[in-house]
Design goal:
The chain is about 70% helix and about 0% strand. The chain is mainly α and about 270 residues long. It has one domain. Strands 1-2 form a two-stranded antiparallel ribbon. The protein starts with 18 loop residues before the first helix and ends with a helix.
Length: about 270
Amino acid sequence: MFCSNINWVGGTIKQNTTKPIFQALFAALLFGVSAPLSKLLLDEIAPIPLAALLYLGSGIGSLGLLITLKQKSNSLILRPKFKLSDFPWLIGAIAAGGVAAPIVLLFGLRQTPASTASVLLNFESVATALIAFFAFKEPISHCILAAISIITLAGILLSWTTGQWVVSVGALGIISACFLWGMDNNFTRKISENDPRFIVTIKGLASGSFSLLLGLFLRISLPSISNILIALALGSVSYGLSIQFLYWQCAIWAQLEQALSSESRLFLALSYP
């Protein structure tokens, strides 16, 4: 994620060290339940349409939040600052993190217990750090190296197929999705001077629409209306609202999100047997 680089627009926000913790934990809880619920929806919806609906729900929910905030306060009026040079990064973030990553994740989740997937998803932070180091030449501290080593070891143990040290196909898919999200995080960081609420909205609507068109092009049947509404609602709450809510807290306390991102994985592991 890129919240430590956010240049928030509209007013001065006072720091509170207690309230943001509980609010960010609540956002992490909302995100944490997305994988087990998505796994249940995979029984009714194919991975590509499900990825499309989740991200469309995210974009719709984020857009609704933006409209609400705009009506309540002039200081929260959206002021995008995109430059021409920002669009390649935005397109890359949409392609990697909004289209490819969720589709690959859902295919992997089909073959992986949600509790195992929850811990494997921590590879996103490893991928983000490694890509930042090798591709963007950012320094990595000893603490980050230690964290990367621990997460990698945990991932190897969880990916172990019984009796053999072989990475399962499902685990490989989840790890691949994490590296795609790592690319997304680094790309998005390049445009983080923009209002993150606007970025989340654009990414959700654009990636969801593209994945939906991809599913139609591949002639993948759409689910029932009830399942469509359920998937949209899940995306709106678990992806859109939670991320928007977390980014708002990041503007108050920039270092909070990275520390709490793993809490959502822990909640997910406890919430699904």
